[in-house]
Design brief:
Elements: H1 21-35, E1 40-44, H2 51-64, E2 69-73, H3 76-88, E3 94-96, E4 108-112, H4 113-119, E5 128-132, H5 140-147, E6 153-158
Length: 168
């Protein structure tokens, strides 16, 4: 498995991912929304538009400022993909999954939501929580996790913010 930061070495030279202009515009829009006092923001992009790189850019910036940041994913392959993308951004992070333990030395964690539900109370609360595929936010586990952190900034990433029932 490629879970866990220790399994790769940083390549030589500067390590920087460059966002496309439309992705940078979304990052700026999210920052403005948070700065205006909003605690829950959704970024919608079409499938393949680069939601994970946008989320990782925000995570990188927050981590550089010393914030505790979690990224929640509902499938193991999405946890793995997010971890790999954070590596491309040069962000040291831990993984919270059934095959890995919480590492309190890390300020950034990619979390499987099923496992996080059972472990979140023994972890430091995040300043920022990035929700991958946030159109699932109405699910009981997701709501329970979100409501456990009312002072956290929540950023949702999705291509489809409206549920099939028509609910947001």
């Amino acid at each position: 498995s490629c879970f866990g930061w220790q399994e790769w070495s940083r390549p030589a030279g500067p390590y920087k991912m460059i966002l496309r202009p439309y992705q940078s515009a979304l990052v700026d829009a999210a920052r403005r929304s948070f700065a205006s006092g909003k605690r829950r923001v959704i970024l919608q992009m079409a499938t393949g538009g680069g939601k994970t790189p946008v989320g990782c850019s925000i995570i990188q910036s927050a981590a550089n400022k010393g914030h505790e940041v979690w990224m929640g994913c509902h499938k193991n392959f999405l946890v793995e993909q997010a971890s790999e993308k954070l590596k491309q951004f040069g962000v040291y992070h831990g993984v919270v999954s059934s095959s890995s333990k919480y590492n309190a030395r890390q300020k950034v964690h990619v979390c499987g939501l099923g496992v996080l539900k059972n472990r979140m109370h023994s972890m430091r609360a995040p300043s920022i929580f990035v929700w991958d595929e946030c159109h699932h936010i109405g699910a009981r586990t997701w709501v329970e996790i979100m409501e456990a952190f009312p002072n956290t900034f929540h950023l949702g990433l999705t291509a489809t913010p409206t549920r099939p029932s028509g609910a947001g």
